[in-house]
User: Fold these one by one.
Assistant:
Number 1:
Amino acid sequence: MRIAQVAPLWERVPPPGYGGIELVVGHLTDELVRRGHDVTLFASGDSQTLAQLESIAPRALRLDPSVKEPGVYDLMQLQRVCQRAQDFDLIHFHTGFTALPFADFAKTPIVHTIHGIFTADSRKIYQQHRDQNFISISDAQRETDLGLNYISTVYNGMAIEEYPFKAKPHNAPYLAFLGRLSPEKGPHHAIAIAKKTGWKLKMAGKIDRVDLEFYEQEIKPHLDGDQIEYLGETTHEQKVELLGNAAVTLFPITWREPFGLVMIESMCTGTPVLAMNLGSVPEVIAHGKTGFVCNNVDEMVEALPKALQLDRQTCRDYVVSRFSVNRMVDDYELAYQKAIAESMNRNGRVSSGQLVA
Amino acid sequence: MRIAQVAPLWERVPPPGYGGIELVVGHLTDELVRRGHDVTLFASGDSQTLAQLESIAPRALRLDPSVKEPGVYDLMQLQRVCQRAQDFDLIHFHTGFTALPFADFAKTPIVHTIHGIFTADSRKIYQQHRDQNFISISDAQRETDLGLNYISTVYNGMAIEEYPFKAKPHNAPYLAFLGRLSPEKGPHHAIAIAKKTGWKLKMAGKIDRVDLEFYEQEIKPHLDGDQIEYLGETTHEQKVELLGNAAVTLFPITWREPFGLVMIESMCTGTPVLAMNLGSVPEVIAHGKTGFVCNNVDEMVEALPKALQLDRQTCRDYVVSRFSVNRMVDDYELAYQKAIAESMNRNGRVSSGQLVA
């Protein structure tokens, strides 16, 4: 199958550090190539891929100080995709609402994976294009009142082999936090849990400009370089090290997380997860087996001793069976076939209508 | 002719206060209707127009606190224009670079008026679509290295009758400044000129969020409620009052102004203009007759006594002959005919090419 994957330009594929969407797009793209598909990846020029790379920006916009209006490049990339639409059997957009109006102009079957959440503004444009083909990354992510034409839920998959299993963490035990240092991800809750339990906490993740004030006020004052530590943005190796050697990973979110890649990354290394009961969390964690789904910070503090007793191999096996790249790509291939079949049916219907008229 | 006018959604048409683009779109649209054209105006739902109003947002985005992602609405409007493209003989975009990729999908002849300046980012997307039909609002606004297909320069026009001539200002004499309180418009220079000459200065215009720090540091400390006064955003009546009763209007810009509507508004009421020699300024002011084109603040201070001697009726007549709505709409009608003729030629060439092949 000739497939186009369209990634956001903000971060490269795969991302050097944090960047959930681009990581998933990278795994999906490379595995599709390994399975014999003819894949073109639309992404920033510094991306690394087994597919053919088509790029209108030499490097990730986030890292290019000359870029002030990223929207310009999003439009240029979408335009390029449309120009080449006839070269593909299917186009898979990962770029959010901006792709919606363009998708109307292409005759090629199209699917959109919605990686984020809906905002009060974006709801309106999604609703206007509700008949296009959408894929959710968890059931919890769907907002049913929008009436979107969801053709599948495909849980994100990860490269299991890149997250070696740690049967027993070798360092002094600590709690881990990984993710943007933003209110939604709850790093302030992680600090509260560490302080209430006396555990050491190691945190890593990027700080977006919009979150600088939050970081200065809620996080930075607690960084003592001893009990509470911030490691900055991590490489993949540092991430695996951080998660695999943790006793427990904290996922104390305050928003409806659409998926939460960090949870499976942690479980894959063997480390159980204490997570807040919001969004996709109950779909991703096997409560009482690979972690605990809690309703507030106090419950998380209370569950910590039980989490320490969980079997690390069980955490690992659970991810292998449910969240591998192979399973994700199986699911996406099915979704692509569904979108193509529906498109042929629709065109068939139009033709017969024309014959009757 | 069936014409679509596409305005930005940020401000309504016409704007209640400041808003150069929306003011020009309003005059152009209404005059085209008066001349018998069938005109549809795509703009915010609170716009007032003689044309048919087509709107995807109930009110100007700037005034709607629920709007966090204005880009969503820009895309929704462009999508609506494309859906209706076949209803028009010509589509006239005033919405900047976002319209460019959409214009490629429409078969209807299209013109873009570029109202603003090029940025390092937007240059790239304009260049990618350089063969579309562009209209500049001054010769100075063109950046020739981009190689854009400019089909005309059309100076902005204004409704002369809405700016009554003041043969003699009746109040205590003062200098006027009208425009965004941003570094580009030079309100800090206006204050410097007032302080150096001892003249009273009355300033009006909006303060954008991005300019708040500039306002707090460079403007607010000088507002003494006596010599230096800031009137906030003005209604049309207040604007006419402010300009018409001024001895001289200051236009001490620090950027390459693409047009500078305030200069003609002022001259129309009879008030000459002292302006900085940047961008369109020498095209808009008749040096030594309707104002003075200066190269720095000191030259403006020096020219002030000479500006006070200029004939107010000459200022008025100059605007009537060069910057009326009628003259602007004459020019746009010619540009539309040119775009339509070129489009027919192009399609004609394609057809004969096909016949030969």
Note: Chain A touches chain B at residues 66-73, 75-76, 78-79, 82, 97-98, 100-102, 104-105, 119-122, 124-125, 128 (CB under 8 Å).
Number 2:
Amino acid sequence: MLDGLVTGAELDTRLERVRQAMREAELDALIVADPANIFYLSGYNAWSFYTPQILFVPLTGTPILAMREMDALGAHRTAIRYADDVLGYPERLVHRPDTHPMVWVAQVLRERGYATPGRVGFEGDAHFFAVRSYLALRDGAPEWTLVESRELVNWVRLVKSDFEIGEMRRAGRVASEAMRCAVELIEDGRPLNELAAGVMAAQARGVPEDEGGESVDGDYPAIVPMFLYGDGADTPHLTWTAERFVRGEAMSIELAGAHHRYHAPLARTVSLGAPSRDLDRLAGATVEGLNAALAELKPGNTPADVTAAWDAVLARYDLEKKSRLGYSIGIGFPPDWGERTVSIRADDTTVLQENMTFHVIAGMWMTGYGFEVSESVRVAPGGADVLTDAPRTLIIKETP
Amino acid sequence: MLDGLVTGAELDTRLERVRQAMREAELDALIVADPANIFYLSGYNAWSFYTPQILFVPLTGTPILAMREMDALGAHRTAIRYADDVLGYPERLVHRPDTHPMVWVAQVLRERGYATPGRVGFEGDAHFFAVRSYLALRDGAPEWTLVESRELVNWVRLVKSDFEIGEMRRAGRVASEAMRCAVELIEDGRPLNELAAGVMAAQARGVPEDEGGESVDGDYPAIVPMFLYGDGADTPHLTWTAERFVRGEAMSIELAGAHHRYHAPLARTVSLGAPSRDLDRLAGATVEGLNAALAELKPGNTPADVTAAWDAVLARYDLEKKSRLGYSIGIGFPPDWGERTVSIRADDTTVLQENMTFHVIAGMWMTGYGFEVSESVRVAPGGADVLTDAPRTLIIKETP
């Protein structure tokens, strides 16, 4: 299937790979809380992750979804697996100081016979597995030895299936279209929040039907568009203000295209009018470094190899980058489109395989100015297979 | 100050109120991780909460921000307090299986003399205080007795200052404008993702200048627009698909206006063409119930009183609602615009005070259809002071 929903068969394959990893880690069960991991295994997709929810994966038998009753009743609308028997905790347990939904979940798992001695993994760095959830399960099932899963499911997600690569390519098309809109909208005097309005609309709209008759609808990205503008051009992760873009300034734009929760992020820097000599020089070095890095992104190499190629170029320009050059991508839910596994940096020795996917982001934040350029890519035999389509340069836009 | 940034003096007052609550809870220090709480106390505002960050608040002395070095260097761009000496943990600690940023933070706090015996509060239900953060601090500062804070800062946020009420009113204007755009855009055959595009653009754009010369720029809402459409009209928290809106169907829309991180959510249900008799009847009962609830939202009453007024109306129509009727609102960061303190339900006995603010949401999800209507309100002597402006009815839109 080239577009549309993932098949149940693919979900079953994913579960088997997760269980294989569980056997290697000697886990009898796994508590999955990261919404991207729950989506990966079940297809479940709703903005319900602000109240506690888990997918409980025993080594054998059917995994069990547990979430707020209000959400459990509708889980079958998106979940392709495990929606027949969702544990819905009562509404009265939501946001209470004196008890917690996971107290109830632990009790029901006990009634179903799962509170037996064994090693049970939990996602210790997931955003939506709160300390109170952890403590409630620890106290509610003292038979369990709770073990940090070390992103077990995230690591299984690392190499993408053909279906997933198709989804990532479509996300890349949405990203390219959103960046094209952003560049088009930049003009002297336009407030940044109006620019954000145009970019977010483009992200949701997606790509209109092309000559081949294919269109791509946009999903919501895990992060809003980020604009590094003016004095703040040296500060990543700022969102927008109502400040007005003025001629002579430059801005780095970081955005993603999303399609069915798969993400392709993309960063570019736009100068409205002629850039400063410093920015022009920085842009040239950074793009050259990125090109060198992308060429090394092939099976058998490591992130350390990729980083070395980048560092060698930068060193020739007396530049260095302290932060990582990229990270693994795929499914994303707020607040992050990264997979939290492989980082492109000198001390990561993961051996790259075909169909791993990365956001390679060359972000250089100097004092008072900065330059960002990035690509979402697939690891391929000839080096990076780029999923997006935007000029890989400092984009200079002249006002009329 | 009517618009613009909060003053340092107001932040200092907030800190003093938090410390008073700490003294009452016998806490010697508090680890604040909820981005809304960090913003409330410091003004710090960036999309950096996907890596660990805290505000460490000792009972005396200057609170300490700790975050990723990349973000720490730019903290002064938004933080009005505590930006002079931000602890920036090294990039190499980001997303690693073998160590964790909070190991480093605990060590630095120790070097600064804070690892002394005492009761230290942590936010056990915050989304961005992961179990690994908790365990790293527990092991790194064994002198501390870690104590669940039970949303201490969130409770301090409950009654809004005049400045905050002004921000909430402006957020309400953005919400009203976004809902007006949503209703305008609904037409036969329009895909839901294109509707989302229009709504998100309106949310970011905000309100154009009015006759009085005031405009309101839109910030990003903590939750994307949610559309309960067609078969999914009985399921809250679904986001959009590329399905097309067709004549004869109805949809509930839940969105928020945001301004400087303050939120005013708003829900309405729109029927394209004549509604079914079931929906029309449900809408009438629900609006009557909401009106009765809003009249009771005044100082001295409790959420239980408000809920009783709502229940009495519903009972006359043989209807009931199992989930809560609303919750406290104010500052919001993804994934939630609620404050996680007071809920409007029968077992909440908090005594309402003037300038508490709530999202009162009458969501009735039946089988195969549903109706939502909500208001963002301020508790006032005469009952709810409504911050938004949209017709409080089932909105019936005729196609041409």
Note: The domain at 162-397 of chain B is CATH 3.90.230.10 (Creatine Amidinohydrolase).
Number 3:
Amino acid sequence: MIRVMTRWLDPDEQQTWRAFLAASRALMENLDRELQRDAGMPHAYYEILVRLSEVPDRRLRMSELADLTGSSRSRLSHAAARLETAGWIRRQECPTDRRGQVAVLTEAGFAALAAAAPGHVEGVRRHLFDALSPAQVDQLRRISEALVVHLTGS
Amino acid sequence: MIRVMTRWLDPDEQQTWRAFLAASRALMENLDRELQRDAGMPHAYYEILVRLSEVPDRRLRMSELADLTGSSRSRLSHAAARLETAGWIRRQECPTDRRGQVAVLTEAGFAALAAAAPGHVEGVRRHLFDALSPAQVDQLRRISEALVVHLTGS
């Protein structure tokens, strides 16, 4: 009989994990609440508009957009429907792949993003970067990059 | 006229922020998916059961439970209703405060937590700690603690 022992967390790891959970949750809740209040969109929608704004013709296949925003296809479809109703994106059939769809940022969507960006960036700075030393910002980047490679292989 | 300039993120900060977002999202999605698959609960429910399991009589006021889990009252109420349907908690009127309610972990809830814990802790270790050096674990703890103080004042 093979008995696999659980590798329980030691007290330092436990404290690290709970602090990380609390910090990341509080950070995202602050940013989400402020974006909703000031720009009428949650952070997930903001991120979709950002990604579309950064590519040529401001258009991406839905599958690429899902990868870039770390969304499931179903969650992205739901968000895209809401963004389309707001007039901020359009969805079109993909010209080179009949099964695919592309999302296109509209002028109104670009304007909504441009209006939201200064307040949101200020929030990221105030809630995250203002609390950290330059060395900690560097540490957080290396830790986060290591986790992204570990978890997503990219 | 006072013109307030946006403190835009420099490229290093931008990279740190995007990597942090991608890492924390991928981490929570992995843990959520595994808990749902193996124990039939999302991470938010697991955390409620953990908090109740750690206090005397395994009972907490709903307001304390909301604070400990970083939940809004409405989100916690929704989760508590689901956990009560599963038979894992009971809600009772608070004996010392007629307006308040307490949540009590049931034996079935404790058993569900005990069954879920080894796999979940293994997931936290595999997805988070296994990717980091001991120095990085220490850095992440200090960064997270600084953010918790900054964002929640506690």
Note: Chain A has a mean pLDDT of 93.
